Backbone:
């Protein structure tokens, strides 16, 4: 891959659609595909893979256990397992990749103005795929994510991955089957304590890794982020994936964090409505066809950043004693040890931090941050000025910003505004959030709902960038609330915020000191604060930044406060989770109407969920099954 | 004939020229010790020394002081740049090996122009003067024992064959060496020496064949007492053979090949054939828990011994009868087996013997890849039908073995070779970069051997194995004896390397092999080794529940300032990898000082404590202070 051929840009990105627009879709779909495979791979078919799972010693152990518990005969359990595997397993076929490639080529060329991919990332990935089993770990912001990745892999001769997908996708007529043959395998949502299902799934995943069948792709966040903010990782899949390494069945595993960002997300309005309690449409082929209108819009450019492959072996050094597996058969089902759970959790959080660090942000993300602090509308000039100020700050904070080259600032602003016509409009030099059009006179509640939908849509674009500011912003808040300038006091408040918000923002467990240090030093380097041996103080010209940073966190703080208030005032000692989610919404609605609460983000169901998780984690509430 | 010759020569004062003369007379693969014995007389200055001393000195005359094996046998690249193996002792001796150069340069990135020759001779001034315990030495002499503090004698017994030991010798660097060498000639001599050592508080280090690869013979740096090397080489007689019970009672200093030859003359064998058997001693086998190539028929050393006599500072330990098995508490033999010279000196051993087998047949099988080969060996073990020996080389070793093929004399043979290669790679579709070879050795009466052979080849066929002829098999085993010589050749051209081993359950064999080989490659890269290393393995023994795996690891060290240190770091990492993959600390090399740090983790703290308490009881003064194991 030479830079010229790919039309690489100065910072290592190239627009992969450029070449596609020059050639025909058909010749693209039928291009010769010669990936360099993993050198330790055993060449096996999808059906052999399934057979290996069914015949595995592990499954046989688990079936033995279930037989003892349930009196079901072995044959029946084996049949069940076989059926589960049929439901689950992928059936990757190059022909279907070509078909999908053909379709994607058409769609992507029409909805995106460009798809920027980092070239060196592709080169590193190609290298990594040959050396060790590779796990692709993209963030999950859109249904497009996995399609785009497979599309890129096909285009650049990289082994097509198999992908862990949610079972609703499978339910779609025809489409489900196409996905299956394009490498998707399907996992049920609520597995609970179904031992056999866990066994089949985990052995299936392990066999893929162990044999180096194909790169394995899954969303470490577990599901699509409705808020576009990183979700705290789910660990189950990662445990399964890493086990072959811990047991020495593979020498190493390369984890490749992938950061996907959309200038405009296809699902933007769906997301906001979902957060306000409007159920998401069921994934059906019919719904998909109806959604075609979405494809007529322009969604700007998209960025895919392939991060540096992370060697699990390097990370694990000294943290795990592999000899724990030496005295039992490796196939024997075993609970992961405590050290293992901690390691995997730390690793998962680290991966998400890497995704965040690499994610490419646009001018629009920064504009959204500013807009949310000016809901009543803001002069375009002022917006431009503040966005440019924020750009400098974000860059100091290490944000991965891409700013169009050779384009004036005002053009950047106006093109962003016009791309996001569903969120903002510019009238008479002033920029406002756009409220959905609807039928005539509305109730107060409906009015609030509409405003909230607009705010949440805008907030999702701020959320794409919020990780850049969280640590300095928490320091800013901690400095304001601390009893003194003493570092100890500020750190104390900081750790409280960190813990409280650890369902909201991804923080690596047990690294409060590092997080604090990071926040402080970013502020210090930006000239916002000064530090002495024991004290931290705001510099004279830093006040503005501190206020701005605090305002970024304000909606979160207010939301948490209002939920606390609800729990204290309104509810009895116990309440059901379902009741909670409906009651809290009307509680907040009232407060918004009365003006006691300002932030429309308080209505986000995601926040409510996170508050509960935080309180649960901090032992302020307890959860029981009824 | 040899004996009479030696006697006549022993009176002649002629120096070294007679060495070459007598050796050229030697007809057998092994040197006749009696021949070399004669030569030493002329070379050893103190004529007052007893005859037995000459023998031991003579051994060091015909062996390299800074490399492996016999002085007359070595690999070299001749003026034409072709490799050849000198001497007359081995099948390979005197032959040209046309492909070795290309393999050597290709594998290591070595170059015949870049030489790293060894110091030609031992610089005696580099040897520190002996720290003598005079009263002890005088008591020894008074007791009529052979003693020497000649620097060459001392240096020769100060090392085994670890890379760092040989590398230092080649560079002329001499560390701490024993201060005195003493040669007992029987059990009673040993008792006397140990008694005197206790009396005068000196440190005794037993020395057998000197083939240790665990730093076991290195003098502990912290030892302040006079260090005495107790060389058992003169205790080399077969004391009796019991044909009714098929046992032999042998002095522990006997060298493997001599024991086997002498028993053969009587129609018997022990069948114990470790790769080092040309030079290693019976006592050394006991002290390290040695394993023989043909253990599938004859067993390992612990299966072979019926009775052991060992002299300790507390006195003599032995059992009271020759019963084949006893239930008398923990088997005291197992305190001795593997004690690595920390408790005493093994002086006499009663061993099982067997009639020399009627028929021997080599064989070999080619597999499409290593996985298939391991699966086959596993199946052979499951069916408990392993031949006397079965070994599986990986692809790198297969290629290595190929590089050691001597020049073929006729066009016909080379045509046949070409045809074979064509059949395997083109017709059968084996990838030459993946295929691997198992070598086999069958023993027994003819009919049974042929039947057995068929059974094994049938199993092999199920795993895609193709019979590849007796010749390949035989060459495979011959290579195990010359491979150690190859390291010296490598060291002449900036290539250092070594082998190490482990044992591991069957289901982990493949994973362990892959991971250790990969770890070696990765560690070399990370530590700045400029060229990809040779990292290869073979499965050398099969058991019911697992296998023994042997690794060879070598690299070109040009451009490195401290190659030995890097070598050691990589080997250390490889051992960590072995342990992390469920392999043992050692299958038969022992622990010595090289692998001591992992002992506690290997046998548990309590286990180590048990061993320590035995040591404390048996040897409270730490007379046997070689510092191995514990």
Residues:
């Amino acid at each position: 891959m030479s830079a010229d051929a790919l039309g690489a840009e100065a910072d290592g990105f190239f627009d992969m659609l450029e070449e596609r627009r020059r050639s025909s879709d058909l010749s693209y779909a039928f291009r010769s595909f010669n990936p360099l495979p993993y050198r330790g791979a055993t060449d096996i078919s999808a059906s052999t893979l399934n057979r290996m799972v069914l015949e595995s010693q592990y499954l046989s152990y688990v079936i033995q256990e279930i037989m003892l518990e349930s009196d079901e005969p072995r044959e029946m359990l084996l049949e069940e397992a076989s059926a589960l595997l049929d439901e689950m397993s992928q059936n990757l076929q190059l022909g279907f990749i070509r078909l999908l490639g053909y379709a994607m080529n058409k769609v992507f060329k029409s909805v995106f103005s460009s798809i920027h991919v980092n070239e060196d990332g592709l080169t590193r990935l190609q290298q990594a795929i040959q050396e060790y089993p590779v796990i692709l770990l993209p963030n999950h912001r859109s249904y497009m994510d996995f399609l785009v990745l497979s599309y890129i892999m096909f285009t650049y001769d990289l082994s097509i991955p198999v992908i862990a997908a949610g079972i609703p996708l499978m339910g779609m007529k025809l489409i489900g089957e196409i996905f299956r043959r394009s490498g998707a395998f399907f996992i049920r949502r609520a597995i609970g304590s179904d031992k056999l299902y866990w066994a089949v799934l985990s052995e299936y995943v392990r066999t893929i890794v162990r044999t180096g069948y194909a790169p394995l792709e899954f969303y470490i966040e577990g599901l699509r982020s409705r808020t576009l903010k990183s979700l705290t990782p789910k660990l189950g899949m990662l445990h399964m994936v890493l086990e072959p390494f811990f047991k020495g069945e593979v020498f190493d595993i390369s984890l490749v964090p992938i950061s996907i960002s959309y200038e405009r997300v296809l699902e933007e309005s769906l997301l906001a409505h979902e957060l306000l309690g409007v159920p998401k449409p069921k994934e059906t082929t019919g719904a998909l066809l109806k959604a075609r209108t979405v494809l007529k819009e322009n969604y700007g450019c998209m960025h895919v950043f392939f991060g540096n492959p992370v060697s699990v072996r390097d990370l694990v050094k000294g943290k795990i004693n592999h000899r724990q597996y030496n005295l039992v058969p490796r196939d024997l089902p075993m609970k992961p040890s405590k050290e293992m759970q901690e390691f995997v959790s730390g690793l998962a959080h680290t991966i998400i931090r890497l995704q965040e660090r690499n994610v490419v942000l646009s001018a629009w993300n920064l504009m959204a941050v500013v807009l949310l602090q000016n809901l009543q509308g803001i002069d375009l000039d002022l917006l431009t000025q503040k966005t440019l100020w924020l750009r400098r700050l974000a860059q100091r904070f290490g944000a991965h910003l891409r700013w169009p080259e050779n384009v004036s600032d005002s053009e950047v602003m106006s093109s962003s505004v016009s791309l996001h016509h569903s969120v903002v409009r510019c009238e008479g030099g002033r920029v406002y959030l756009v409220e959905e059009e609807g039928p005539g006179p509305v109730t107060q509640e409906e009015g609030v709902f509409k405003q909230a939908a607009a705010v949440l849509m805008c907030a999702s674009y701020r959320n794409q960038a919020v990780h850049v500011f969280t640590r300095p912003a928490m320091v800013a808040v901690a400095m304001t609330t601390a009893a003194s300038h003493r570092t100890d006091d500020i750190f104390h408040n900081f750790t409280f915020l960190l813990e409280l918000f650890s369902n909201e923002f991804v923080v690596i467990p047990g690294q409060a000191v590092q997080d604090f240090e990071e926040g402080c030093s970013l502020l210090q380097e930006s000239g916002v604060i000064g530090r002495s041996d024991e004290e931290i103080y705001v510099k004279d010209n830093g006040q503005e930044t501190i206020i701005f940073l605090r305002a970024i966190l304000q909606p979160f703080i207010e939301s948490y406060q209002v939920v606390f208030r609800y729990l204290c005032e309104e509810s009895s000692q116990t309440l059901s989770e379902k009741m909670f989610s409906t009651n809290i919404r009307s509680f907040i609605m009232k407060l918004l109407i009365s003006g006691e609460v300002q932030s429309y983000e308080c209505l986000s169901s995601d926040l409510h969920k996170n508050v509960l998780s935080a309180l649960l984690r901090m032992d302020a509430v307890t959860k029981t099954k009824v | 004939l040899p004996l009479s010759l030696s006697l006549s020569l022993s009176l002649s004062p002629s120096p070294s020229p007679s060495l070459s003369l007598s050796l050229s007379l030697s007809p057998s693969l092994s040197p006749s010790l009696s021949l070399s014995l004669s030569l030493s007389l002329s070379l050893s200055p103190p004529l007052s020394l007893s005859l037995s001393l000459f023998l031991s000195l003579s051994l060091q005359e015909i062996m390299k002081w800074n490399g492996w094996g016999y002085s007359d046998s070595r690999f070299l690249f001749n003026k034409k740049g072709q490799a050849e193996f000198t001497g007359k002792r081995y099948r390979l001796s005197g032959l040209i090996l046309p492909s070795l150069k290309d393999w050597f340069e290709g594998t290591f990135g070595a170059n015949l122009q870049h030489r790293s020759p060894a110091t030609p001779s031992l610089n005696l001034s580099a040897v520190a003067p002996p720290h003598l315990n005079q009263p002890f030495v005088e008591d020894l002499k008074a007791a009529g024992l052979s003693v020497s503090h000649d620097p060459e004698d001392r240096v020769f017994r100060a090392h085994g064959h670890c890379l760092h030991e040989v590398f230092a010798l080649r560079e002329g660097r001499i560390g701490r060496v024993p201060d005195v060498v003493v040669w007992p000639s029987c059990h009673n001599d040993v008792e006397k020496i140990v008694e005197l050592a206790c009396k005068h508080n000196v440190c005794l280090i037993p020395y057998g064949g000197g083939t240790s690869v665990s730093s076991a013979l290195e003098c502990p740096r912290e030892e302040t007492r006079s260090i005495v090397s107790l060389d058992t080489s003169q205790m080399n007689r077969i004391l009796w053979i019991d044909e009714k019970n098929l046992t032999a009672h042998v002095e522990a200093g006997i060298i493997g090949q001599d024991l086997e030859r002498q028993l053969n003359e009587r129609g018997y064998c022990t069948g114990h054939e470790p790769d080092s058997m040309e030079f290693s001693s019976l006592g050394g086998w006991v002290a390290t828990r040695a394993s023989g190539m043909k253990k599938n028929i004859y067993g390992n050393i612990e299966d072979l011994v019926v009775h052991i006599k060992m002299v300790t500072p507390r006195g003599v330990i032995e059992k009271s009868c020759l019963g084949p098995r006893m239930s008398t508490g923990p088997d005291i033999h197992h305190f001795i087996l593997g004690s690595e010279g920390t408790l005493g000196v093994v002086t006499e051993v009663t061993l099982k013997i067997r009639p020399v087998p009627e028929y021997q047949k080599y064989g070999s099988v080619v597999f499409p890849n290593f996985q298939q080969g391991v699966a086959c060996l596993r199946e052979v073990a499951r069916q408990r039908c392993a031949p006397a020996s079965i070994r599986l080389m990986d692809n790198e070793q297969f290629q290595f073995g190929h590089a050691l093929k001597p020049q073929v004399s006729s066009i016909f043979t080379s045509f046949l070779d070409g045809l074979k290669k064509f059949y395997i790679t083109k017709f059968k579709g084996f990838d030459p970069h993946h295929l691997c070879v198992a070598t086999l050795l069958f023993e027994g009466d003819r009919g049974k051997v042929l039947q057995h052979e068929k059974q094994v080849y049938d199993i092999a066929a199920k795993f895609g194995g193709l019979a590849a002829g007796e010749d390949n098999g035989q060459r495979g085993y011959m290579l195990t004896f010359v491979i150690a010589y190859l390291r010296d050749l490598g060291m002449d051209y900036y290539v250092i390397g070594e082998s190490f081993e482990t044992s591991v359950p069957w289901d982990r064999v493949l994973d362990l092999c892959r991971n250790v080989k990969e770890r070696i490659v990765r560690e070399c890269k990370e530590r700045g080794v400029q060229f990809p290393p040779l990292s290869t393995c073979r499965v050398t023994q099969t058991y019911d529940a697992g296998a023994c795996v042997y690794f060879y690891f070598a690299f070109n060290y040009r451009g490195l300032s401290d190659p030995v240190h890097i070598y050691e770091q990589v080997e250390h990492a490889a051992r960590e990898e072995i342990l992390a993959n469920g392999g043992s600390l050692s299958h038969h090399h022992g622990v010595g000082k090289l692998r001591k740090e992992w002992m506690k983790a290997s046998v548990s703290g309590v286990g180590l404590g048990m061993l320590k308490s035995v040591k404390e009881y048996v040897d409270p003064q730490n007379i046997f202070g070689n510092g191995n194991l514990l």
Q: What stands out?
A: Residues 1-8 of chain A have pLDDT under 50 and may be disordered. Chain A touches chain B at residues 40, 247-249, 251-252, 322-323, 325-326, 329-330 (CB under 8 Å).
